[in-house]
Amino acid sequence: MNEANLAQDFAFTSEFWSGWIIVLTLGNIFACWWLIRWTAKRRAGEAAEGDTTGHTWDETLAEYNNPMPRWWLWMFYITMIFGLGYLVLYPGLGSFRGVLNWTHQNAYAKEMEAADAKFGPLFAQYATKPVEQLVLDPRALRIGERLFVNYCASCHGSDAGGAPGFPNLRDTDWLYGGNPETITTTILDGRSGVMPAWKAVLGDQGIKEVTAYVVSLSGRDADTSLVTAGKQHFATYCAACHGADGKGNPALGAPNLTDKTWLYGASAGVIAKTIANGRNGHMPAHRNFLGEDKVHLLATYVYSLSNGKR
Q1: Is residue 47 part of a domain?
Q2: Furthest CA-CA distance within the chain
Q3: Which family is this sequence assigned to (predicted)?
Q4: Among 106, 134, 191, 307, which residue has the least CB neighbours within 10 Å?
C-alpha cells in the first residue's frame, strides 16, 4: 500500500470518527430533550387537576399529583441550550473547531505572551550580568529559587538534594561539569545519558567480577579474586567512558566511580543491576519553555547551591 492510499485511509477514518462523535453528541442532547418532553406529557386517565393523578394501586394507594417546579424544568432546557451554544463556539463536535477557532495551544501562547510582556523585563535586567556576580545578589537568587521550585523540584527535590536517578545539586560532584556555562547549557539544551547493558557480553560471573572491582574503586572491601578479574573486564569494556582510573569523563557524562557519590545507589546489588541492565538518564531541555533569561537566573541558583552561597 503506497503513501497516497495510507493518507486516504487515514482521512476516511478521521472523518468517520469525527462524524460518529457529532452524531453521538447531538443525539444525546436531543435524547435528553425528548425524554423531558415525554415524561412531562400527560397520560390518558390522569386528572387535569387535584391532589392525585387518578392512578391507584392496591385499592387505596394513590399517586399524588405534584409536578416538578417550572424553574427546575427550565434549568434542563437552559443547560441544553448552553451546551449547543458551546459546541457552536468551541471545539467539541469531532473535527469541527468552533466558530471562534479556539485551541489550547493558542490559549497557552496568548497567556505566555501576556506573561512575557509583564514579567520579561524583570528577568531581562539580569541577563547581561555573569553568574558569578549574580550569586551575590539575594534578589536574583530568590527569583532563581522560585524558578527551581516550579520547574526542577519534581525531579531534584525541593531542597535540590536529588533522588535515585536524579543528581544531587548541592554537592560538588557533577556528571557534565559544575561551572556556570556548563550548568546553563545543561538546563537550556538538556542531557541524555546512556549506560549500555553488559549482561549479554559479560555473563553472570563477569557481572559479579566487574561489580566487585567497581565497589573496590570507592575504597570498600571486596573479594580480591573477583576484583582482579573485574579489573581486566573494566579495562576492556568500561574504561573508554569512565577512564582507566574510573574517575569518569564529563564530556560523556560518565560518572566518577572512585568517590562516595552514586546516582542510583551504592550497594553491590544496585551496581550489579546497573552493569547488567544499563541505565538511561534524560534531562529535558528548557530553552524553548523557559527562555535564556529565566535559565540564566535558574543556573545562578543551581550554581550557588554547590558553591556555599545558599
Answers
A1: no
A2: 101
A3: Belongs to the CcoP / FixP family.
A4: 106
